[in-house]
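Late entry, evening session. Most of the bench is empty. Finally got around to the prediction I had been postponing all week. Sequence below, unchanged from the version circulated by S.P.
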Amino acid sequence: TGNHTVAVRGHSTFTNGEASFNGNSFLVNPSLSTDTITLGATAQTGTITLGQSTKDNTINIGNAATESDQEQIINIGSGTGSGLATVNIAAKASQGCETAVTIGGNDPNFGTTTVAIRGTTTLTSGDVNFNGYDFNVLPNIGARTITIGSTTQSATGIITLGQSTATNTINIGNAQTANGATQTINIGGNNQSGGDTVLNLAANTATAA
């Protein structure tokens, strides 16, 4: 009973067998702010698990209240080696489970969230929804191509640009083209031999009130 303090000074190594910490709260508090905490060896092939509870619980990684003039950097799978890095986030395989992944703050007035996706990225398996505030697709190189829809998309797969029932504006190729430059807008003009194109413009079938 009571409080016990175990002071481990200098370089210490725990080897040969498992080391278990059972009981109440367990804290790792280095005496110097510049000290490093490392879990896992450089040649480790085993699994490191942070949190294994099957009950309601919270796991915090880099969740401190960072001061206004400070920066907190959290690296996940960002090593400098040439090997493959596979990062799974909420990649559950259990049938019927629900997953919610939130990236960034919920109000842009409190700060800007920048998500940099480098290389070839494929979003698969299930609906992908971008909800909230403005959403921009801005390649960092002008020669990049943006494609919506696959080459084998079936007739039942609909691509919708704009679905608001309120007064709104949809712009396609509406940039201020520079002097001497040409903007080409192709709509339904690349059929293979024997293919058909049906182009409906303002073909509203709704009955006026």
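Two things to note before I forget:
The CA atoms of residues 117 and 139 lie 10 Å apart.
The chain has a mean pLDDT of 81.
Will write this up properly tomorrow.
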